[in-house]
Amino acid sequence: MVKLETRDNQFILNGEPIQIISGAIHYFRVVPEYWEDRLLKLKACGFNTVETYVPWNLHEPEEGQFNFEGFANLTRFLTIANNLGLYAIVRPSPYICAEWEFGGLPYWLLEDDNMRLRCTYEPYLEKVRNYFDVLLPMLKPYLSTNGGAIIAMQIENEYGSYGNDTNYLQEMKTIYEQHDIDVLLFTSDGPEDSMLQGGMIQGVLETVNFGSNAERAFNQLKKYQPNGPLMCMEFWNGWFDHWFEEHHERNPKEVANEFETMLQQGASVNFYMFHGGTNFGFYNGANHIENYEPTVTSYDYDAPLNEYGEPTEKYFLIRDVIQTHFGKVPEELPEQMERKAFGSVQLKQRTNLLDSLDKLSERNHSYDIKNMEKMGQDYGFILYETKIAGPRDNGKLFLQDVHDRALVYVDEKYIGTIERWSDNKYIELSIPENGVKLSILVENMGRINYGPLLKDRKGITEGVRFENQFLYDWNIYRLKMDDLSRLDFMDIKPDEASPQSTPAFYQGHITIEEPADTIIHLNGWIKGVVFVNGFNLGRYWEVGPQKSLYLPGPLLKKGENQFIIFEQHGTKNREIWLKKDS
């Protein structure tokens, strides 16, 4: 039986001391066809372990409905790791943060107005138990004690940054033990007094997360855990991006030096991230410290393997440190995946969103505004329609607590945008004698994944007012964008102008002889979502920092490939470009 244990301030595996050199690769951010390639590159860098979170919302998208196929096939990922001779650290938690939508929690928790998250609130714990009753038995055969790759599992994630309900942590530990999870259990927190006090319990190893100043971080850990091995469970060697920001980069030599310092202290290290991957679909999260800040589609993270799975300067410097410290000759890197330029895709057909509502959703009538969660909707967009009687003099239209970005139309003509993070909270308009139809398209740009504002319900969460008068009698359309097959596209005439500020779907096709990775360039497009052969590739937005989208080769096929772009504001072009470079 292979079991990771702690003794004499070090990790012991098979009776021998071990320094765990681990890298985070999230199976759910990488196309399954590339899992082996990324894991081989991890091993070729000299690492002995892979670490991954497990997002609850991916595996139980609707309550009681479970998904472990495709991107969600965790056991296949673990099998590949085991076959390659890698150990695995698995972090179900059930909260993961990870800049992932709602920190991995499923949206349907928020259907309960009284929900309390990550504490001993029994309705929450009941749903965690139900999920773990399915997940943990699946993982049990993959424990190292049963011949599998998993040497350690996390019971909660950075809990001291959220709460101090140690009874809750004890309950999480008990759930694992009831399922006979007999590998090492651990928690991870920032190296601050409050975080360590709130996130630790007896009998569970504590680890720390940081990006620099390892000596201070480990000294803090030793104050609370003097006899445990030192481990940085998240060494932040890069960082993630929000829209409107510059792309984050960290000096590779600085990363390598910090890593070497930790090794010299006898510490184990998990690189967060080793390979970031991509926030496909609508799974990006958001932060809210002072303002709401949604994360971009790319999760490149300035990691040793970039978003495309290519080794960077940081990769080779880290490999050199490992070789010097352990005297280990690095294995040969697998051949790099080919990237190709396929030229332009002509988007020759279009259909307007407001003309296609019945193709995308049923109309739901409600006397009042309802948020997405009350409508049983997870991701995407939601559209609200009502009538405003006239005449009315010029007044202010308020969207009270809109989450997150709303486009407003009067009689299907665009009149303005209201964004959660903007100081502009209203639109001025007057109502003619015959009244108007008011339409409001709201985009869920990602539920908050970290901090005290986790309960981030989407859509319009309070109501819509004209001056002080709340408006009632609404039609509501749930626009999940998970099936576009019913859309009716019409050819665009060559001399026809593109409608500006009108949300529309554009369709085009391209024939490909040999699929390969490529990069989609969207010059002239403003904001929207790209679908390739029915797969939601993610969001784009001209504000940056991300100006292109990574398209992995396995999402293409030999022959004809379909591209649909949902553009919210109109476009200057009717083509996109598939290039080799970003």
From TrEMBL:
Residues 371-480 form the Beta-galactosidase 1-like first all-beta domain. InterPro entries: B-gal_1-like (IPR026283), BetaGal1-like_ABD1 (IPR048912), BetaGal_gal-bd (IPR048913), Galactose-bd-like_sf (IPR008979), GH (IPR017853), Gly_Hdrlase_35_cat (IPR031330), Glycoside_Hdrlase_35 (IPR001944). Keywords: Glycoprotein, Glycosidase, Hydrolase, Signal. The keyword Hydrolase applies. GO terms for molecular function: beta-galactosidase activity. Residues 10-324 form the Glycoside hydrolase 35 catalytic domain. The active site is at 158 (proton donor), 234 (nucleophile). Residues 503-561 form the Beta-galactosidase galactose-binding domain. One of its GO terms (biological process) is carbohydrate metabolic process. The keyword Signal applies. Belongs to the glycosyl hydrolase 35 family. This is Beta-galactosidase. It comes from Gracilibacillus salitolerans.
